[in-house]
Amino acid sequence: MNAMLETRNLSKSFGLKRSTFARAASAVGLAKDNQKKVHAVDNVSLSVKPGEVLGLVGESGCGKSTFGRMVAGILPPTNGSITFEGKNATRASVENHLNVQMVFQNPYASLNPRLRVDQLISEAAQYHGILKPADAPQFVASLLQQVGLDPSYANRYPHQFSGGQRQRIAIARALSLNPKFVVCDEAVSALDVSVQAQILNLFMDLRESKGLTYLFISHNLAVVEYIADRVAIMYLGRIVEITDTKTIFKSANHPYTQALIADAPRLDAKVAEHRPIQGELPSPLNPPAGCPFHPRCQNATSRCKEERPALKEIAPMHFSACHLND
Ligand SMILES: Nc1ncnc2c1ncn2[C@@H]1O[C@H](COP(=O)(O)OP(=O)(O)OP(=O)(O)O)[C@@H](O)[C@H]1O
After folding, report:
1. Which of 240, 235, 188 minimizes the C-alpha distance to 214?
2. Cβ contacts of residue 90 below 8 Å, gap of 6+?
3. Residue (of 202, 186, 198, 212) closest to 55 by Cα position
4. C-alpha–C-alpha distance, residues 235 and 64, integer Å
């Protein structure tokens, strides 16, 4: 099946201000004029099929949000391309904005506290001319119902709602532009566990009823195991493993994926099975040579220290970037 969304060698680097760079450079032992860029996302090529949920997982700072923002057209890429339904979507355009919407982690920060719920949900659609002011009350009531909220809440302000309810309002706002693709960036991470399950179920219901496709960014493996069809594992801006969710959790190939899974707390596991991941994420200002995971990998060889492994197909539709497979 043709991809709905495809990225080719998508990259984003951030230049640092001189003073910021000087502090960061001395912290990681770099000469001041050696390297002045953070390669937050580095040559990521992947595709998402219509109706699919692709999970994007990795430790904090590995580049997940930067990738999601580029896909949603909020952040321009430094290099590479984005294709949406076969059309070039690398540069932000109104069409791409309508097709791809984003739901953020913190519904306390993402909703303007001075606007009422009806204004929050209807302003973008009115701005884009897809909603007439006279139709707004009915439009808002319908969206509130679709996200499991009482239409009578339309006149209230964000502070009058719980975290889960606010995230439902943020989802209604994203749906107001009738997107085909939704980027969820840690969309349940700030919520209580019981509320997380309700919001995840709402995402799944909306996938069915509206035929939505998702990029689901999360550092929480349990969440991704529940919701995703396929999982991409990101490390220092690169995809190191990608395959279907069952295979990732049953037979992960990359040592980083294996370490993430061993590190993840599981309700059903014995305490002894929990093995915290060794070491810290290296600074993206000064990434290690060779395989970026080699300083934390117990099986690293001399080749891993020198040569960067490519993402290779190690079994049908199972890709991993690890020299140990050769
Ligand atoms: N605007 C920016 N300017 C400079 N550096 C940035 C900027 N945005 C992100 N970065 C850097 O890019 C790298 C990737 O950040 P990003 O937020 O994409 O990671 P993440 O995996 O989403 O982490 P988190 O879950 O903590 O947000 C980090 O080193 C971060 O400090």
Report:
1. 188
2. 77, 80, 81, 82
3. 186
4. 9
Alpha-carbon torsion, ordered 122, 127, 128, 130, to 10 deg: 50
Tokens read off for 136: 């707004």
Structure tokens at 84: 């949406």
**For residue 40, how far is its CA from the centre of ligand 1 (angstroms)?**
6
pLDDT for 212 equals 98
Task: State the DSSP string of 168-188.
Answer: HHHHHHHHTT--SEEEEESTT
Instruction: Answer for the pair 232, 239: CB distance below 8 angstroms, yes or no.
Output: yes
Q: Is the full-model pTM beyond 0.90?
A: yes
Task: List the structure tokens of 196.
Answer: 């997380």
φ and ψ at residue 263, rounded to 5 degrees = -80, -25
Q: Which one, of 41, 40, 9, 46, lies nearest residue 215 by Cα?
A: 46
ipTM of this predicted structure: 0.96
Rounded CA-CA distance 72/231 in Å is 19
Residues with CB under 6 A from ligand 1: 14, 38, 40, 58, 60-66, 219, 284
DSSP category for residue 98:
H
Q: How far apart are CA 149 and CA 304, in angstroms?
A: 52
Which residue in 312, 321, 309 sits closest to 256, CA to CA? 321
- Whether 25 has a pLDDT exceeding 80, the answer reads no
Domains of the chain, start order:
5-114+157-287 (3.40.50.300)
Q: Which atom of ligand 1 is nearest to the CA of 62?
A: 21
Calpha distance 46→101 (Å, rounded): 19
The pLDDT value recorded for residue 93 is 83
Task: Report the run of H or E that residue 227 belongs to, with start and end.
Answer: helix 221-227
**182 Cα–ligand 1 center, Å:** 20
